[in-house]
UniProtKB/TrEMBL annotation:
The protein's name: DAC domain-containing protein
PROSITE patterns per the UniProt record, alphabetical: DAC (PS51794)
Coiled coil, from the record: 154-181
Keyword Nucleotidyltransferase carried by entry: yes
Domain DAC: 9-148
Keyword ATP-binding: yes
Record organism: marine sediment metagenome
Reactions listed under catalytic activity: 2 ATP = 3',3'-c-di-AMP + 2 diphosphate
Length: 339
């Protein structure tokens, strides 16, 4: 995923959060949908929007759902401030550059897309016939789903997440046993990392649903938080244990999460990001973990101390064989932890 795509996703996520259930703007949009009148709302970058507009009524009044709904009954657009707390103008005729490409067919949606591209404002287009809500921001487009549909998708995704998490726990437990016996291969480590990344990708999808659900997504958020406890940290220390490149672990993890689902199914792709090149035989290579995963499970042992222990001894087996006196010499360990 390149920088532009990341920026688009962030813009869309922020926009979806602004009109999620429970927000003032969503209440206004629901009124407009129920009335079947349709509407066009512009949010933010008011100076740029006014440059491509004609006429309208200047208001500069406090925004509330009822006012936005009533003003949307008029033919023109309603211009709102960046924080959606003020209605700046209503019944505005938007006249964007007609040379800007648009793939939309309806006049309202065509205007919305062009204005979004030209002004970088968030444009909310509410269809009169189909009762759909479409967001346009810069060159990004997002069609809001029905709340019931999102809840259904969220529950399905949670069920999938539970299954993947259960499998992740199994392979992670198996890896821990192999680490203590010093029998780990690259394949063993990558299988756990692959499962962990898949779990995190599913979680990211659910987070998007939660963002769109607003107040309706509280219970789903609680379930997600419970299922994802420590998963992100576990994958990070796993990477630090087995990476063959000197890059920061978080940077490596970002690269791994950028892999598509299809690419992630090929274990060699994950191995390559970790710094292991070669054919299928490379997966049988025996590895010696540094010990980050095992040390992280020790209660109240700070990451700074874990780094010092690993730097001192190099790998897990050396740490396991170290005497209490040797461990006590490491700054921050102390006699109680060493014993």
């Amino acid at each position: 995923m390149n920088a532009d795509e990341k920026t688009k996703k962030q813009l869309v996520k922020k926009a979806v959060g602004m009109i999620a259930p429970g927000t003032m703007l969503r209440e206004a949009i629901d009124h407009i949908i129920r009335a079947g009148t349709g509407g066009l709302l512009t949010i933010g970058n008011a100076d740029n929007v006014l440059k491509v507009s004609n006429g309208g009524v200047e208001l500069y009044c406090k925004a509330d759902p009822q006012k936005i709904y009533e003003l949307s009954k008029m033919d023109g657009a309603v211009i709102l401030s960046d924080d959606v707390n003020q209605i700046l103008r209503a019944n505005v005729h938007l006249v964007p550059d007609s040379n800007l490409y648009t793939g939309e067919t309806g006049m309202r949606h065509r205007t919305a897309e062009r204005v979004a591209k030209q002004t970088k404002a968030l444009i909310v287009s509410i269809s009169q016939r189909r009762n759909t809500v479409t967001l346009f921001i810069d060159s990004a487009k997002y069609v809001l789903n029905n709340t019931r549909q999102i809840l259904s998708k969220s529950n399905q995704a949670l069920q999938t997440l539970e299954k993947y998490k259960k499998r992740l726990d199994q392979v992670a437990s198996n890896l821990s046993a192999l680490e203590y016996e010093d029998l780990v291969t690259l394949l063993d480590a990558i299988i756990v990392l692959q499962r962990s990344l898949m779990v995190e990708k599913i979680a990211l999808e659910i987070e998007q649903y939660i963002c769109e659900l607003g107040v309706e997504g509280r219970l789903i958020q609680m379930q997600l938080d419970e299922l994802m406890a420590n998963v992100s940290e576990e994958s990070l220390v796993l990477i630090k244990d087995y990476q063959a490149v000197k890059d920061n672990g978080r940077v490596i993890k970002e690269r791994l999460l950028e892999l598509t689902n299809e690419e992630m199914l090929d274990l060699l792709n994950i191995a390559k990001v970790l710094g292991y090149d070669g054919g299928v035989n490379i997966l049988n290579r025996q590895l010696h973990p540094h010990g980050f995963r095992v040390l992280r499970k020790i209660p109240r042992l700070p990451y700074s101390v874990i780094d010092k222990i690993v730097n001192e001894f190099g790998d897990l087996q050396s740490i396991l064989k170290a005497s209490g006196q040797d461990l006590d010499k490491v700054d921050g360990v102390g006699k109680a932890r060493a014993d």
